[in-house]
UniProtKB/TrEMBL annotation:
Its job: Necessary for normal cell division and for the maintenance of normal septation.
NCBIfam families in UniProt: GTPase_YsxC (TIGR03598), small_GTP (TIGR00231)
Keyword Hydrolase in annotation: no
UniProt protein name: Probable GTP-binding protein EngB
Keyword annotations of the record: Cell cycle, Cell division, GTP-binding, Magnesium, Metal-binding, Nucleotide-binding, Septation
Amino acid sequence: MKVNQAEFIISAVGPSQYPDDALPEIALAGRSNVGKSSLINRMIQRKNLARTSSKPGKTQQLNYYRINEDLYFVDLPGYGYAQVSKSKREIWGKFIEGYLMHRELLKLVLLIIDLRHPPSKDDQTMYAWLKHNDVPMCVVTTKADKITKGHWAKHVKIVRETLQMAKDDPLVVFSSELGVGKDELWAMIEKEIDW
Ligand code: GTP
Ligand code: MG
């Protein structure tokens, strides 16, 4: 995909604010600070369109980014951020659950996992929930630059086993820092959206 135009559209706090131009949507899920916003920036080759932060919990709404006239990236709030109150977490949870289950324009969820560590309990819950609800998904293991390439396969194996992924469930190794996995992930996305 050649990205000619990438634009922040809206931070949606409810369904009435979702865009209504019927473009396919690719959502990014993952725990706080895992690198969701950085991944968007790398995919569109912009330094800081999607706001990133070394402080977790930065993204609290559904942030819509329109790419050309082709699709939206939807940056979801990160889960597993302990400093957010429980009641607030529950409201987010319902909101995001509703989006993931009922948004017809949603073509693919990128579940972002830190390649360095075994998936957390929250990651495992998220993966199982998406699978159970038949939400099309691709696991993306990011921050690959933080480990030597020779160890990637070992880490991928741990991720696959911990999430109990099936053999043919897709997984892309990624680094927002280096751009590793970018073309492979674009190919995956293009396969899922109708042109
Ligand atoms: P929330 O919006 O809080 O849920 O976080 P997020 O998942 O959007 O994470 P974000 O993209 O803001 O990145 C968090 C931190 O990780 C930042 O300091 C990034 O620079 C760093 N980071 C993200 N991806 C990578 C990567 O591939 N490699 C390296 N080395 N650092 C990364
Ligand atoms: Mg973010």
